[in-house]
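Dear Dr. H.,

I hope your travels went smoothly. While you were away I took the liberty of generating a structure for the chain from your last submission, since the lab meeting agenda had it listed for discussion. I wanted you to have the full record in hand beforehand rather than looking at slides cold. The sequence, exactly as received, is reproduced here:
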Amino acid sequence: MDGLEFVISENKEDLLHSSSPNQYVVEQTYSKHELPGKLRDAYVSFSRQGTVYILTNFDTLFSALVKFDELALSQQNDAWKVVSQSITQLVSDVNKHLNSDDNNPDTCKELVTITKMIVYLLCLFLQNYETRSLVVPGSDAKSGRKKKKPVDDGFDLEAERNFAITSLDHLIQLPIHKLWSPPVVEQEFVNLVSNACYKILENPSISHVRLKGTVESVFRVIGALVKRYNHGLGFQLKIIQLLQHFEHVAPACVHGLVTMIELFGCSQMVVELVREIGKVDPHDLARDTSSSRNYAAFLSELAERVPSAFIPCISLLSVHLEEESFTMRNSTLSIFAEIVMQELSGEDLDERKRELRDQLLDPLLEHLHDVHSFVRSKTLQLWHKLSLKHAIPLNLQHKVLTMTTGRLNDKTGTVRKNAVQLLIVLMQGNPYGERLPLEELGAKKESEEAKLKEMLEASGNQPQRIQVDPSKCGPTKTELWNAMEPEILVAIHEVFDEEDIDMSMSELTNEEVIQQLNACNYKRVARMFITEDDEEQEDPVEILDKIKIIFVGDEDNDGEREEMERLVQEAVEQEIQQPPQEEESKEIGQQRMLVMYLKDSHAFASSVYAAIPMVCQLLCSKQTSDILEAIDFFVTAFEFDVLDAMQGVRRMLSLIWSSEEDVKKAVVNAYKRLYMNMEATGSKRRALQVVSNLSALISLSTQGELASLEELIAMCVKSGDLPKICIQVMWEKFSMALPDTTEEESRSALMLLTMVASAEVQVVTSNVNVLVSVGLGERGSKDFRLAHLTCAALLKMAPTKAATDCKEQPMRFPPTNEIFECSKKLLVEGLTRLEDVHYSQFATTSVSLIYTLAEHPDMIMGDVLKEMCAIVYKSSRDQSGNLMENAELEVPTTVLTRIFVVAGQVALRQLIHLDVHVYSELRRRARVREEKQEETSKQKRNLLQSASRRRVSTRPQQEQCESGEDDELVGAVADDDEAEYVRKICESEIVTGGHSLLSSMAPLVILVNSNPAKYPDPSLRAAASLCLAEFMLVSPQFCSQHLRLLFTVLEKSPEEVIRSNLVIAMGDLNFRFPNLIEPWTPNLYSRLRDDSPIVKRTTLNVLSHLILNDMVKVKGQISDIALCVIDPDTRISSMSRMFFSEFARKGNALYNVMPDIISRLCDPEAAVAEENFRVVLKGIIVLIQKDKQNESLVEKIILRLGASRTERQSRDLMYCLSLLTFNERSLRRILEHWNCISDKIHEEGVVETLNAILATTKKAFAKQEIRGLIDEIEAKIKETIDADQDEQQVVRKAQASQVTKAQAPKNKPKRKQRAKDSEEEEEVSMDDDEPEMPGHPAHLGTPHSSNKKTPLRHGRNIRKKIAIPQVSSDDESSVEEEEDDDDDSEKEDRKAQLAAKLKNNMGSTRSIRATRRQTEADSGSDQDVFIKPASRGKSNPGKNKLPEKKKSTTTRSRR
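The corresponding predicted structure, in token form, is as follows:
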């Protein structure tokens, strides 16, 4: 071993062969059977000799290394035990030697050999263990068979790995380079240690937190190698490889690199790694998303730990912002944000750092509009972090807010979510204050601006300072020229060296030359002087002098300098003489700063206000995240006193009906946060504040908002969030027991109590006396709004649904109850109190209350109506004296209006009372009676059974069964009898028959509705029309008699309120009597074209309800609803879209009406603009998602395309095709019906749309079959276009030949031959024109005439010789009779002549196509739903049918 050198090689086999005389070679490798004994001998030798043992036992350990996979686990562990103990001893020996004075070269050389051998074995053994741990347990990759589970031999890889890497760390930290001579550690040794470290990093378990110490040790070793042994380049390349192939390695590398920076100061490694990542091909990064994701994660996490290390490589990172990989863009933007947050935030930055901060924030602003949604979302998140850290400069606050507002309309949900979150954080962290009232800020800004203006005007009266011109205080023109002269001379020489000088500047003036010189555009000026005269080029010095003369001119340097110095001196003296002016200027400066601050705050608040309408739209989003963030935004804005936020706060109330529990919970929490979670001390004070807030909310709410608020308060009551003390305060406010309570607050408190009663009815039932005495007493008689609210509160006592299975009687009060007495009194006495306009509202609610809670309500309301009529008669008699028997009564319009309101409500409530309550009560009583009878019969049967236990007979059992079945039948018949009884009463005894009070009033109602000129008051006619509709709801006989009158009022009434009310009534009538209303459905659809948006909106709402609930048969009129999509009223258009989205969920409903919609909208008579047509169909066809429906629609639209009459129809139908999704079967439909498309190829837009469809389908599908179909269709398109061009060419030739023959002299001998040819051509043309007979889809609705030509498009009407006018049906029949008389040979000759004629005359191709299309359309007409049956029936099938022989002739000629 003396004198031999151990050479470290990457390949273990190299140690078996010597490449130099002094190289150590393994002499013998032992088998696995010999190794156990040899390993024991090596361990004994190590125990005796120490590390020197390796010189004689290396072959043994090397053999164990080579045969590692063949050894048993115990033998592997024995070998590792020897090597691991050797490295510990080696560290001790090396440390001892380096601290000693022994400089013997032989000793150092021997120690180097020992070190290399032991480290070599340790690293390779460690790599083997790592490789074995990476193999998936239980599987054999080669054989595919499962291996046995390895036996646990007690070997802890994590502990041994940590021990080995720690030992290597201790060894590398020593100055081991001193052992080498010269003192340079060989690169192979460095690579050996580093490869072992990198192998450890490849293990996925290294990312676990428990191995954090191992990672630090690994990177301590690598850091020492980089710092001391020139391993920097290898480290960079290896880290890049690890990041490229292993996803788990990024966090470990970040932690390790931070360790290297802290211990060894390797911050330059960050720059080098960024440079290496920048060298990766951008296209590879875009394709390999895993590697780019690893790079991005590594850089982003590292920037969070050590952002300062990235400042030197900002320019290297900026390159990634222009690359295709969005992950790298995200990473770069994250790094910039971290640098700003941790290194460049604060107010104490110098100018250079401020510029760097602005430079880093600019890309963050730009990439808010990135093409990739992930980048936009990430950028918003970064601005969110910057705002939380208060790292956004003041001058960027408004700009960031404005750009974030623009992202609220982003098409991606995550972007919208992050945009709203950023708006919330910007509001919460704004530097302008805790309140953002726009009007207050605007008023304050204007006042401060006026104050500043006054201060400036006041300062204008003082002696003005002499202002020194800044341009004269700088360098003179001569000084500037001396500075730029060398550069100009260089530019002149460069221009001389240019080969092509094509830029002439001869038109520049001297002033423009000076501007170019100031802008450093020296070459442009030089080209002007060089290109002035191409023949004689001047010397560069002469050109320079010319430029100098223009720039400097006749400048008097001394005079100008003296003048400048004089001005400066005067300004300085004036400054010294005016100290009070200095103080005043400070005040003006402070005022200017205040005005600027107010301007910024006003602009910030304006941007917040501008975002509110966009966030309101997010409340209607389909994504829950948008809704939740919008709710949070409005709560925050409301807390900052943003007044317009109330709009969103009210709109979110409707979300309480959402099916998403998260949304409902968010709405409840938002209102609790705004109105219920008060910070007032004391429960009473807090309850007062809560009730006051809710009362203020109620006072401005609409009916829809009140319904939503009722549901919200009911949920709060059930959950216990509204305490009992708040309910007590509401009662005190209602009864005005609290001082300073207004009437409005009292009514609001009563409304709150009504809402609370929805969840807890005991609130009302326990305080009925209070409600009656206050609400229906003296205060109620003076305030009908209060009385109306009181009746609504009392209605909460009624059950929501009549129960028929309950044995107990429903809760009803006797007619003499105080509730009804007070209500009756108010109804009668309030009839003539005309100053209160809320009587009708109270009367409606009061009648409902009486019919819901009173026994015999018809008797009570009968008395009320009689008393009202008595008052009317009495007042009329008092005014006009004694009346004649048939004299007309003079009644105030308002009184008659109120009577109609009460009468109509009585009729409606009487119907509901009979149809619901009375019917339910009859059934309940019948049920109770049946149960009693059954119980009695059961007792009788028990007695009979006990009396005759010993006698068994089957006959009684059969009789019992029959009697049971008879009882069931009797029960069903009884129910029918009860329903018939109720129906008969409604039909003949309420509003008809002449015996009831309402039937006596019916003529008056009809009279008012029939004579609008006699009764012009709008309120009266509105009440009369509504009363008539309510009467019609009761009786089908009365309804059928006056239905025409009602629709007349609906169509001719000028008041939109009347029309809107009657539309709602039509919906109720349709539900009650669908057969009577069905013929009038078109009249109801016609209200969608009403001039009033209110009527249109009401009609759309009613029709949507009827259609979605299957109350109306959907017909072609649904196209009127489709046109509402383009209505200028946004509410109508949104309602229409919502209707179709719901309608599309009803199975095949939308698909079934889609042909009717397309057919009606593309009809020229509909006169729908093309752009509007496209908007409507784009929003509807997209809702059809099923493949079969798409395929069927494709076929139907193509067939309809063949029957289109105008180019506009063809374009519209092709656009509908482009909206559908095409698959293989859809493409085959195109090929099957190609004849319908080929005739329209020449029309504008058809080919372009068809090519767009094919291109889109080709991108979406990669199947070879689909691509083959697309190629076939494209070939047919080209073939059809070429044929069309050939036809046009033939037409032109025929026209030219006709003109030539017309100009030639006529020869009499040829007349006979021409006549013969003309007859043959006429026969051919007659045959060709046969397909264009009446009944063809292309000529539906066009009268057929034998003397009128069918117009042909694109010049085909000029083919006078080829296109013969169509013949009539009689002529065709005569032609057929002549053909039948011919013999067979003449028929064959004629067929040959026809074929030849058809082949030569290309102009007849169009007629042949029409023939074939007509034939196919006739055979497949049952599939074309667009062709109206009425139009198709006009033609005679016998005449349209082509003879079999002519059809075959036509087909052969076409081929």
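Two observations you may find useful: The chain has 66 helices and no strands. The two ends are 98 Å apart (CA to CA).

With kind regards,
E. W.
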